[in-house]
Amino acid sequence: MIKRFVVLFIVCLFLFPYFSYAEMPAPDPGKLWNYITKKSSYKKWGFWPDHKGLQKGRAPHGPLHKVYVNLFGLSSAKPPVKYGTIAVKENFNKNRELKVITVMYKVKGYNPDGGDWFWVKYSPEGRADKYGKPNGCLGCHGVRYDNDFILVHEFK
Fold first, then answer.
1. Residues 47, 27: Cα–Cα separation, whole Å
2. E-only strand ranges, 3-133
């Protein structure tokens, strides 16, 4: 009986990431917004260990920001991060008013030349402005190709 339990436990450990990734949204701005605000509220996620809480920022994102990262990203020890990783950046003005929410979402096969990242720029209310493979996102983040396009966290 104990052997069966141990085997079942090990099988579940290996299958958990597959089933979790299978539940991720399609690379669609509406579905992604629903996921990060309702199904898995990004406000309950964590921060990169070297980039916690409100941080100084720069253009085009604004002078202040917070970057929330889901468990796929936080459990990635080195680049490339795991598929299903989502990083949500709240972009604030100097008065700490939320102006824009930008999202990076790693989707297998979406854009191999761009690290398989799906990008979205939302209003605070969830209206998608730019999304997909914006040249501005790829151009800026592309300088960190070896860090899987991630600017605010340095993998050790």
1. 23
2. 55-56, 64-69, 86-92, 98-106, 117-122, 128-132
pLDDT score for 3: 67
Q: Tally Cβ neighbours within 10 Å of residue 109.
A: 8
DSSP 110: S
Q: Using 50 as the pLDDT threshold, list the residues of the chain that sit under it.
A: 11-19
Question: Which residue from 95, 98, 105 is spatially nearest to 70, judged by alpha carbons?
Answer: 105
Residue ranges per structural domain of the chain: 26-147
Q: Could you tell me the CATH superfamily of domain 26-147?
A: Cytochrome P460 (3.50.70.20)
pTM score:
0.87
